[in-house]
Amino acid sequence: MAWGRGPIKLAGLGLLPGLLGCKSTPTEVAIDTHVLGGTIHVEVGQTTDQLGLIDGVVVATGSDAAARADGRSRVIDLGGAVAWPGFIDNHVHLLAGSFVFERLLLLGTSSMDSLLSKVESYAEREPDEAWIVGYGWMREFIDDPSGVALDEVVPDRPVLLVDNSGHSALVNSVAMARAGIDADTPDPDDGEIVRDEDGQPTGLLIEGALALVSEAALQDYDDAALGGGLNSALDEFVDGGITGVAEVVASPGFDLTRPWIYQELEAAGDLDLRVHVYVPVFQPDDIHDAVAWADELDGERVRFAGAKLWVDGSMGTGDSWVSEPLTDDPDDFGSAYFTAEELVQVVADAEALGVPLKLHANGDQAVAVALDAFEGQAAGDGLVLPHTLDHVVLIGADDRARMAELGIVANLQPAHWIGAQAGDIVDQWGEERFDTAYDARALVDAEVTVSIGTDWPVWPSPSAPVNLWAASVARGPDQGLSREEALTAYTAGSAAGVGQSQLGCLDVGCVADMVTFDVDPLTVDDGSVGQLEVTGVWLAGEQVR
Description:
The protein is α/β, with parallel strands linked by helices. It is built from 19 helices and 26 strands.
């Protein structure tokens, strides 16, 4: 499997140095599709009025496209619309999110009393649900969250309520009994069973401890139940202008590696976007299992993109791995899922096996240790695959320079900054440290390749316009991206993240994944960015919306 890394023009933005593959010029034959009648952004800083396609790939632009059209060429008339390369969300949990969004949503729940009331009502409405599964409560809004308290309203069925970060959960006594959790159950190395003063589990599980219950829960859901809400979620993404996603089929404590659900949709002709699948690595040796998926996931729209692992925990649980302790505990530096030595081995094995890595790294120490592993590999046997660090919330100036030098893609979630301001992390890190977080501007200035992801359902909107607004307007000019940079990051940057240089562009050699708007996202005023209307979506020149 080849992973291209060559140059691409970037209109002086400096976002993708040395990452994308060169494009070849095909033999001049008649085009089978002629795109015209609008303004077409080949990439940021370059427009044309026509494209010529053969088998969904751009082979000519402008007058060259017109010259290669003949009477047999299918015409796509844009009707004055503005076309952009398709947007790629470089970090989603689409299968997991579609599953929980079909169940009990707890977004905005502000107290245990409110949470209990919602759980009780849902249990009454759904008497046949084997598990009461909920999603979206926020730990910072609920004092002393207790799973045992759920016994008051649901004493006879297991309850599993995952928080909005996906890194902690509340479970009732029935669920703990199913999982064999009691006072004698040890904490896993990568998580915590929260206990009361008597040592009894409270029903709050953190990070890797979720696996103790999730395995029991998932056994009760077949593929049809797990993927029942997937079509609806896919529609939302495509309607929002998304032509591809980097799908992480797991989170700490939850393994949803059932990518054949996507393959079945593709085979049935029901998949209208590209799914770049990342399978989980929870232990160092799992990388050897991950590579087996490369041959299994090789479709046109469902493909193996690499392996996902978690270097540190979540900001929402206070477990980001940081170089300076949390303000309320001089001995608390967050948590790590892998040691530095284990990461070195995983990176070496991944390069040897041809498996690109996607690493969750929130805190500055997590970022630094991950870069150490990549740097050691680069100095030794070499670093050639397209690797990504997800989140990169906190990073030192020297590590920004290292990241650029190593060619590691930064996958950012600009919208997360909005919610983080209301969370406990401001107090845990201190305002001075928090003020340096989510600094996309510093990464771009250091010439790091930047991509955009939502971490959906953590950020619940899959809309490209909404997330362009979050990246280029909400964060502000000092630490956010310019409009041009945000558009580049969301297209070519995210294509670099998934190792597909032929996506995220509409130049010769690019696959014609395309999104149209009635007005140009590049020139519309700041207040209107989030309200842009997607008027059409194409995959390889075939209209899907």
